[in-house]
Amino acid sequence: MFGLPASGGHRDGADPATEEPDVSQRAYGHLVDAAGRAARAGRFRDQASGHAAAQLWSMLHGYVTLELSGHFDRFDDLAQVFIPMAANLVAGLGDTPDRAARSWDRLQG
Predict the structure, then answer these.
(1) Residue 17 lies in a domain
(2) Which domain covers residue 96, as residue numbers?
């Protein structure tokens, strides 16, 4: 899910031996499911859950790639980068900043 394949190296997401979705497609499926739940709960505007999931995946991929490369070493990257970025994205998808913040607080326990 977070690999950087060479040009033309994108896979179709199926394991050729079993025809089952590979691990990256299963991970992406969780994002599609979560986006669908958010839309049904009225938190995301009505749109294809795959479209919202692609936006979430793009955000996550960019963040993880930059984090693994050490670009956020000078930040408290979770509090100063990831959480505000995620809140901005979900607000753009239709959620409110307050609801997004409450969701994050619930995840933190």
Answers:
(1) no
(2) 23-108
DSSP 6: P
If you compute the radius of gyration of the chain from its CA atoms, what whole number of angstroms results? 16
Query: Which residue type occupies 51?
Result: H
pLDDT at 51 over 70: yes
The reported pLDDT for the residue numbered 5 is: 53
List helix spans (H) across the chain. 23-40, 49-68, 77, 83-92, 97-108
Residue 91: name the closest of 58, 36, 30, 45 by CA. 45
Cβ distance 71 to 84 under 8 Å? no
Note whether residue 60 is domain-resident: yes
Would residue 11 count as lying in a domain?
A: no
Q: Are 100 and 86 in contact (CB under 8 A)?
A: yes
Percentage of the chain with pLDDT > 90? 47
Q: In the chain, how many domains are there? A: 1
